[in-house]
Amino acid sequence: MSLLLLALMAARPGTVSVYVNGRIWTGDPARPEATAIAISGDRVLAVGTEDDLGAVPDVPRIDLK
Known about the structure:
Elements: H1 3-10, E1 16-25, E2 33-40, E3 43-48, H2 50-53, E4 61-63
Parallel strand pairs: 1-4
Antiparallel strand pairs: 1-2, 2-3
């Protein structure tokens, strides 16, 4: 299991949402766009692809279409 998934799973239950199928600007020139973002409250926990973030159990996923 990746460190990213472990960090998401360690966040308080019920506070994390994963938004998928979006076009997210990362601010990182090496990887300027992502398609998924994990948020808890007012904090960004992770940015990546749906494959990166979608494997966390019991986390609601919101489709940005």
